[in-house]
Specification:
It is a single chain. The protein is of the alpha/beta class. It has a domain of 190 residues: 3-Layer(aba) Sandwich (Rossmann fold). Helices cover 44% and strands 16% of the residues. The protein has a 7-stranded parallel sheet, sandwiched between helices. Helix 4 links the parallel strand 4 and strand 5. Helix 4 runs parallel beside helix 5, helix 8 packs across helix 11 and helix 9 runs antiparallel to helix 10. The longest helix has 19 residues. The protein is globular and about 55 Å long. The protein starts with a strand and ends with a helix.
Length: 295
């Protein structure tokens, strides 16, 4: 049996679909089971609650062979360590007590780089990986750059203004990946019993692109001029605070973006194994354009 956390998230719901399509027995942890897709509810075992709660994970992990681990976003957390490390501690104890064999987690690129210690959300993700590894469970961290799907947060501006924004420089070329490719990589590891130990698996997409490159591709796919605009660090943080993000989490998010602008995502070499198949143009055609059309 495989347990999936965050099963209604962008990545988690695709992992659930993939596992069910592969004929696996799936249990999910969901705060609100009504948010599960109708085609999923009757095919999975549901444990209701937060996967940061000890009683919930002890119940959910009983009899599990593998766990897909993804902490939920917590924009109002008092600290970045609370959002990642404190949230994960009950699960680490439950991995050991329940005899879970394998954990596949969502993490980030940057380990071993000069900027990783001051990269906010990324720094916390890497510390979370170390915490999970210290539990003694076999663990693979999927390490990713920024997701193509993050652009969906700016669909309204793309449609009405022909603009999208970031504090990262427009000419900084970096890898990006789709959540579909992340879910596919997670699924392969979850259903494969042959691996052991601790390590990471990068998901880098097939190409490095800048935001200026993306704007050109988006313009061609959407059939209208799209332009990238770099915004200041101060403006970026102010936008986050305007969405009721805590000071600590707004600063951690900004620190991550500053680190990306300083090359955080460029240190991992692309290999045949880490080069995931979905290119940005393909993603724009399959995901972004329909989202813009609906907006």
């Amino acid at each position: 049996m495989i347990v999936v956390t965050a099963p209604t998230s962008s990545i988690g719901r695709q992992v659930v679909d993939n596992l069910l399509a592969a004929g696996e027995t799936v249990r999910v942890i969901a705060r609100d089971p009504s948010r599960l897709a109708a085609h999923v509810r009757d095919r999975v075992d549901v444990v209701q609650g937060s996967h940061g709660d000890a009683d919930v994970v002890n119940k959910a992990f009983a009899g599990a062979d593998a766990v897909f681990w993804l902490p939920p976003p917590d924009p109002r957390a008092a600290s970045v360590d609370a959002a990642y490390l404190d949230f994960t501690r009950p699960a680490c104890a439950a991995f050991k007590s329940a005899g879970v064999k394998r954990v596949v987690g969502i993490s980030a690129l940057g380990r071993g780089t000069a900027v990783a210690d001051k990269a906010g959300l990324v720094t916390a993700s890497l510390k979370m990986d170390d915490l999970i590894a210290s539990s003694g469970v076999n663990h693979r961290a999927l390490t990713m750059p920024s997701f193509m799907d993050n652009l969906l947060r700016q669909v309204a501006a793309i449609k009405t203004q022909g603009l999208f924004f970031s504090p990262v420089a427009g000419d900084r070329k970096s890898p990006t990946c789709s959540t579909g490719d992340i879910a596919a990589a997670a699924t392969r590891l979850l259903i494969d019993p042959s691996w052991s130990g601790n390590g990471h698996a990068a998901v880098l997409g097939p190409e490095d692109l800048s935001f200026d490159d993306m704007a050109e591709i988006m313009s061609e796919v959407l059939g209208k001029p799209i332009r990238f605009q770099q915004i200041s660090d101060e403006a970026f943080k102010a936008r986050l605070l305007g969405f009721d993000t805590s000071e600590a989490m707004a600063q951690a998010t900004l620190d991550m973006m500053v680190a990306k602008n300083n090359g955080l995502d460029n240190a991992e070499p692309r290999t045949p194994q880490s080069s995931s198949p979905t290119g940005f143009r393909q993603w724009c055609e399959a995901v972004l354009k329909p989202a813009v059309d609906r907006a």
